[in-house]
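User: I'm designing a mutation panel for Acyl-CoA dehydrogenase and want to avoid disrupting the core. Could you give me a predicted structure to guide residue selection? Please restate the sequence first so the numbering is unambiguous.

Assistant: Good idea. Sequence first, for numbering, then the predicted structure tokens:
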Amino acid sequence: MLLELDSDQRLWRDTARDVLTKECPASLVRAIAEGQDTDAAGRLWASYVDNGWTELTEASETVELGLLVEELGRATDPTPYLATLTQFTPLAPEAADPKLAGAAVYDGVTAARVADGWVLDGTARHVLDGDRADRFAVSTPAGVFVVAAQGVSARRVAVFDPVLHVAEVTFDSVRVSGSDLVATAATDHAARARDVALTGLALTMVGACQRVLDLVLEHVGSRQQFGVLIGSFQAVQHKAADMHVAIERARALSHFAALTIAADDPRRRLASEMAKAAAGECQSLVFKHGIQLFGAMGFTWENDVQFALKRAKAGELLLGGAAEHRAVIAQMSLAGA
């Protein structure tokens, strides 16, 4: 299993970065956060569809999807791409539609058998893009169902990241047919889908942390104190180096997780747990050092570093934090000892 990107993958990553630099600049993210451009996310999503980015639905394309997701994290992507491609689609690959946004519900919902199908009941919290999804992939003890958004009640809740959509989704006796059951509880469908979701979040956090480091290096390379650049101070260099090491460590584990998923390697669960844990630890260090190296400017609304910091922090809070995943890794290690 090769860990180095080949020339095509590097070109794919660089192309995605160039496109996002042009179409999703910090000024656009700020306009969305301040409520000045309510249609921007829709326009971006349409461009992703036109570029074919929403067609990366095969397991064998997980590495390419991961490279794109990392760049989207770096750009603080305001669209439902992450929820659709790394959460909905892995749970319900047969229902994938490149033009429709989706969201995944992992718990909180039960399914009861009735004569003409099933009835779904329950409330799911912290559903990524649950308020603007066209469809839901709902994991229940009976299996995975695909449900149209029209029959579901969704309410967006306020979160740390101002451009991230997180919702509380309620299923109140929602009736679905037998054909809406796309995977039974006997399959490991949900387990594999969770691996993809964790890896997607980890790579999003890595991209956001990289953006923080890029902004920090730009700042310390131009800001002067006592007549010299602050980037020449040894303490500043040490903090920047620590940020770089943490990011590269999390990136390597996240790319390895994507490789194990693409190859259907049995290590994929452990790899995805390690990737999410490493990304969580990375964002903690990058958040602390990033704010400190910007000084008081790092706390201001006018500084664009806030958007990357908040995206990284939000990723840590979704689907379990670093401590939770470290505990899972420890249990898996002890079980295999």
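For picking mutation sites, this is relevant: The CA atoms of residues 225 and 301 lie 23 Å apart. The chain has three domains: 7-91, 102-184, 189-336.
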